[in-house]
Design a protein that fits this description.
The chain is an alpha/beta fold. The chain folds into three domains: about 105-280, Rossmann fold; about 280-460, P-loop containing nucleotide triphosphate hydrolases (Rossmann fold, 3-Layer(aba) Sandwich); about 465-550, 2-Layer Sandwich (GMP Synthetase, Chain A, domain 3), CATH 3.30.300.20. The protein has helices at about 35-45, 85-95, 120-130, 180-190, 205-215, 260-270, 300-305, 350-365, 385-395, 415-425, 445-460, 465-480, 515-530, 545-550, and strands spanning about 105, 110-115, 150-155, 160-165, 195-200, 220-225, 250, 275-280, 285-290, 325-330, 335-340, 370-375, 400-405, 435, 490-500, 505-510, 540-545. The strands form four sheets. It has a six-stranded mixed sheet with strand order 3-4-2-5-6-7, with helices on both faces. A six-stranded mixed sheet has the order 10-11-9-12-13-14, with helices on both faces. A three-stranded mixed sheet has the order 15-16-17. Strand 15 and strand 16 (about 505-510) form a beta hairpin. Helix 1 (about 35-45) packs across helix 2. It is elongated and about 90 Å long. The termini are far apart.
Length: about 550
């Protein structure tokens, strides 16, 4: 991976007919000038979610939340990673946060795998081909661990889709998780339709030599790519790789977008797309983010539900770094799982790689429908669990508390009920969230968990007729009228449902600023009770009607 791959905002010369990607990469120089930071912060704030404010009539959710979208928790302050990185990443994520609603699913896509030793630029090329920042890139060797895959439309083609996989680096001297990383890489290679073997133009190492020999049986489906050939002057370095016998050789610069068009054409030319077919889908996948602190069993649950070893499972905290995705079907419903990195308290995040992992985990909330918050039943609820839950609820996502490792708990009568009641005591305004005991290792509790997911998704997408809604509101006002007094009087005129997933409602009142928190909570709870929304957050907005605004001279 290029040492310069982390420099933000590098310009790339435009070529005719080619869209050039010039977004910053995943780490940021700490010497960035103030003007660029100001521009990034302005762009990020433009897309920031509105906060609760009855006086201005802006969106109000359940009033909890102390975690922001950059992965920072608690009070404002400096993180171990650069403050400049936070603002630039917020701006980058703004374009990626909107979830994609699928109408067509592509099946039998050719599998293209990027392989090589650490720091040859695999993740940089992966992001370049996807034309978005998906994999973490950093000068630190061995950043990628789990294979990260995504559908990729090859540039300058209309219909040539592939499944592109970024893999962990191949090492000869291995320690810690290296054996698991290399084993997962070799497993993916055996399934590949095309292997993109990446090396560094400036250096050939024993790992390159060993890997080149190891890949010999797959010569027919292999492309040798020499990266970091940043200029024509470096092309001469490429020919030192000829002795391996792989032909042709493609020399590129993934960072600078040099010769990427030619590489894309070569990839397309080596693949057979005749088996690819598109299937119309009536319903989008239910997107579930599995979140929590490190070592709570997130990857174990993902692998169990998918029926394969998609994520590396280890007792080492922070094993998962990139967001790992996987699809499966449950009772005829498509499910997309998103396994995220464990989120620790900000003062314990001491390096950039973990910071960017946490940032991606937080951003996943904006892409998902439901958050499964994994809590270690043996440890109990922590402050970090509270912050993650509050953030998910504030975003309007369905939230399920999963007490994992329940098989290790003492078999005491009513122990689960006690644990559930304790959790709900700490989350007074989120008592509607289901609490379930699960053992990801033993595979118990999964049926109830997935049935709850299906029910919750149905509630998130439920539509309510305006007439039926206002009839119910009239009844609520009649049975529990608003407070009467010169400083508290207001009238509820009418209500409308303004959105689903998350559920959003607007109540038009004469004096929005006079509606008390307790009455607002009353309305929210009545919506849940009356319209079977008992398991999900409800976003409530209070506005003055047009007539009332005219009277007030607004």
């Amino acid at each position: 991976m290029s040492p310069r791959a982390h420099e933000p905002g590098r310009s790339v010369p435009k070529k005719k007919g080619h869209t050039v990607w010039v977004q910053p990469y995943s780490t940021v120089k700490k010497t960035e000038d103030a003007s660029s930071l100001k521009r990034a912060e302005a762009k990020a704030s433009k897309h920031a979610a509105p906060r609760s404010s009855k006086a201005t009539g802006r969106t109000a959710g359940d009033k909890t939340g102390t975690i922001d979208k950059t992965g920072k928790t608690g009070k404002a302050g400096k993180t171990p990673a650069a403050a400049s990185a936070r603002s630039v990443h917020s701006a980058e994520r703004a374009a990626e946060r909107a979830p994609v609603i699928e109408t067509v699913r592509r099946e039998n896509l050719p599998l293209v795998v990027l392989v090589g030793r650490p720091n040859v630029g695999k993740s940089t090329l992966y992001n370049r081909l996807l034309r978005k920042r998906r994999a973490i890139t950093d000068p630190t060797p061995g950043v990628t661990r789990d294979p990260v895959d995504a559908e990729c439309l090859l540039a300058d083609t209309e219909d040539k889709w592939v499944r592109l996989v970024d893999t962990g680096g191949f090492k000869l001297e291995r320690e810690g998780l290296d054996e698991l990383v290399v084993a997962r890489t070799l497993s993916v290679i055996s399934q590949a339709d095309l292997i993109v073997f990446m090396v560094d133009a400036a250096q050939i190492t024993p790992e390159d030599e060993e890997f080149a020999a190891l890949l010999r049986p797959w010569t027919e489906k292999l492309i040798l790519v020499v990266n970091k050939a940043d200029s024509p002057e470096r092309d001469a370095l490429v020919w030192s790789h000829v002795r391996w016998g792989y032909s042709p050789i493609h020399f590129i610069s993934a960072e600078h977008n040099r010769n990427i068009d030619e590489l894309t054409e070569a990839i397309a030319g080596k693949l057979d797309f005749s088996g690819v077919r598109e299937v119309d889908i009536e319903r989008s996948d239910i997107r579930i983010a599995i979140m929590g602190k490190p070592n709570t069993g997130k990857s174990t649950l993902l692998n169990l539900l998918l029926g394969e070893q998609k994520s590396i499972v280890s007792d080492v905290p922070g094993t998962t770094r990139d967001v790992v995705e996987g699809r499966f079907s449950w009772k005829g419903r498509g499910i997309l799982l998103l396994d995220t990195a464990g989120i620790r308290r900000k003062k314990k995040v001491t390096d950039n790689v973990e910071y960017y992992s946490v940032t991606r985990s937080i951003a996943v909330v904006e892409r998902c429908d439901i958050v499964i918050l994994m809590i270690d039943a043996t440890e109990g609820l922590t402050d970090q669990d509270k912050k993650i839950a509050a953030f998910a609820s504030t975003e309007g996502r369905g939230l399920i508390f999963v007490l994992n490792k329940w098989d290790t708990m003492p078999d005491v009568k009513n122990s689960f009920e006690a644990a559930r009641d304790k959790l709900r005591y700490f989350f007074g305004q989120m008592a509607y969230c289901p609490v379930l005991p699960v053992s990801a290792r033993e595979g118990t509790g999964l049926d109830k968990l997935m049935n709850t997911v299906i029910t919750m998704y149905s509630q998130l997408n439920k539509k309510i007729e305006t007439g039926k809604l206002n009839k119910a509101v009239s009844h609520w006002v009649e049975t529990t009228p608003p407070p009467v007094g010169p400083n508290t009087r207001f009238k509820l005129r009418y209500a409308v449902q303004t959105g689903i997933n998350p559920q959003r409602f607007v109540f038009f009142v004469t004096r929005p600023e006079k509606v008390s928190d307790s009455y607002e909570s009353f309305l929210r709870n009545k919506l849940r009770e009356e319209f079977d929304l008992d398991k999900i957050p409800v976003m409530l907005e209070l506005k003055a009607s047009r007539v009332d605004r005219k009277k007030a001279g607004q």
